[in-house]
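Collaborator request, handled under Task 6.
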Amino acid sequence: MKKYEIKDILIGISIIILPIFLFIHKWIPEADSLIIFNFTFDRGEFTKVNVLVWILCFKFFTIAILSLWYISCKHWWKQAILVPLIIELFKFFGVFYTQHDFIDEIDFLYSLPLTLPIIIAVIIISKRLNYYSITQDLKDDMDEEINTIFSELAFEGHEKIKQVIIDFEHAKLNSKNLNNKEYLKELKSLKNRLKNF
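Structure tokens returned to the collaborator:
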């Protein structure tokens, strides 16, 4: 098997197994403490140990799903997944340090210094990619229109126009080797040649 196929299989198996964590609390007895492998788990601020286990397992499930999404995501906005992941990590560790009556009460404020730079970076990248996308769409539309006009002119059978079309295709191929001014100069030259027809 190829390397990426094994990764995909592991992610798939993880997605199938992870929902089990949502039901582990049903197997935990309703008690004030629980002893597993000589470790004692106390209920802490919660009513019973199974409530604590339910909260921890639900948070672990959310963190695991977000982590799998981050690992498997191939889009440019992949870093945006880190924002809810960081917030969920703060919530997970906040369960152990409950000094207040409500869980998840102020974890967003604590995670803001970590998430704010990610949010700003994603917004900046989004704007730049949007500009690039619009520019690329405009270029593609212009190329399509030019090709349509050239094919209509070539269909009419003008030999000089066919040579301009060949020169234009050659200029497009060499555009990466030329700087913008040289490329623009070559395009203007072709435009002037077309005006003479």
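The cover message to the collaborator said: "Helices lie at 3-17, 49-72, 82-94, 107-155, 159-174, 180-195. The radius of gyration is 30 Å. Please let us know whether this matches your experimental observations."
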